[in-house]
Amino acid sequence: MATLLLQTAGAAVGAAIGGPLGAVLGRAAGAFAGNLVDQQIFGRDKVIQGPRLDHARILSSADGAAMPRIYGRVRIGGQIIWATRFEEVTTSRKSGGKGAPSGPTVREYSYFANFAVGICEGPVSATSRIWADGVEIDQTRFEIRFYKGDEDQQVDPLIAGKQGETNAPAFRGTAYVVFEGFPLQDFGNRIPQFTFEVLRSVSRLDRSLRAVCIIPGATEFGYHPDQVRRIAEPGKSGFVNRNCLTRESDWHASLDELQALCPNLETVALIVPWFATDLRAGECSIVPGVEHPASGIRRAGLERQRHFPRQRASGQPL
Questions:
Q1: Radius of gyration of the chain (CA)
Q2: Helix or strand (DSSP H, E) at 237
Q3: 148 shares a domain with 186
Q4: What would the pLDDT profile of 56-95 be if each residue is shown by its tens digit?
Q5: 87-142 confidence digits (pLDDT tens)
Q6: What does DSSP say about strands 47-49 and 105-121: parallel, antiparallel, or unpaired?
Q7: Strand, coil or helix: what is 185?
């Protein structure tokens, strides 16, 4: 409205002062001033709403469905056995500032789910990998708790907090996984279809083991508990000691699985091999081997450049 009024007034004033040319300039100046006024009056409270859920879509869950029993290592699906309403988080942002007229407020919605997925009859040894809609997820990015399905397992704290200590089920005898605050944005704002890699040891030997040797010792940073990143070339890097998505490093993932399968284990021995430089005994030297000669390390009094470089195939050390 202010644009029309000031545009007309500017044209009239400009025509009175400068004739036809003044009318054109006055009309443009009035339109600009009116636009600023309209922005201040009408544009301040304008809100653009992002997509918002009107109903929830979850995994299938059937009353009376059979509870599978697994042996060894199995990839298996599950059913929702407990869930809450989706948590909605609103994020508002506004453009403009620094002399420019303020733009509309954009309001976006993010959704998070709390739920438990029953997997199989317990007790089992552990879970390993988890897939969502067929794609393995990085478990370090989410709050995930696993229950083996013992007959004396305790109630999950999230379930207890939502339902109360006296009303919360412990799901004893059922192996299940609890997801807390699981973000749904990457899955179309729905709970994806989950499958789990479940391990159940059926051998008495596993429970009888007291000591083992950890291999392969040929790995360069396999025993390092923290992530080690290698820069292959400018703009291209990757972790050299993380090949699984269950823990922060391969070392932690291996120890977790070892302790789950061999619960009575007490000690381990680390294997640290050196390498022969020649098949001829008279010409052979036994020295440390390296995978990446560029990074700095000192071993046995030798600089890395003097270590034996391991043979490679397709760019990977043998």
A1: 32
A2: strand 236-239
A3: yes
A4: 566 666 777 788 999 999 999 999 999 999 999 988 877 6
A5: 999 888 776 655 555 667 788 889 999 999 999 998 999 999 999 999 999 999 99
A6: parallel
A7: helix
At residue 7, the 3 state secondary structure works out as helix
Q: State the residue for tokens 């390092």.
A: 224
| Domain boundary residue, one of 202, 225, 252 | 202
Report whether 91 contacts 108 (CB < 8 A).
Answer: yes
Residue 139 is assigned to a structural domain of this protein: yes
- Cα 279 to Cα 287: distance, rounded to the nearest angstrom: 14
pLDDT at 185 over 80: yes
For residue 111, which phi and psi values (nearest 5 degrees)?
A: -125, 140
Q: How does strand 289-290 pair with strand 308-309?
A: parallel
Dihedrals phi, psi of 35, to nearest 5 degrees: -65, -40
**What are the two backbone dihedrals, phi and then psi, of residue 161, each rounded to the nearest 5 degrees?**
-70, -30
Q: Please say whether the beta carbons of 118 and 67 come within 8 A.
A: yes
Helices (H) and strands (E) in the chain, counts: 4, 22
Based on the domain organization, do 23 and 95 belong to the same domain? no
Q: Are 176 and 117 in contact (CB under 8 A)?
A: yes
Tell me which amino acid residue 182 is: F
Distance CA 185, CA 163 (A): 26
**Can the peptide bond before residue 216 be classed as cis, meaning omega within 30 degrees of 0?**
yes
| Boundaries of domain holding 141 | 72-202
Burial (Cβ within 10 Å: 0-12, 13-18, ≥19) of residue 100: exposed
Do residue 189 and residue 149 come from a single domain? Answer: yes
Side chain identity, residue 95 = S
Does a structural domain hold residue 285?
no
Total structural domains within the chain:
2
Cβ-contact 221, 228 below 8 angstroms = yes
Q: What's the one-letter identity of residue 119? A: I
How many angstroms separate the CA atoms of 225 and 113, rounded? 31
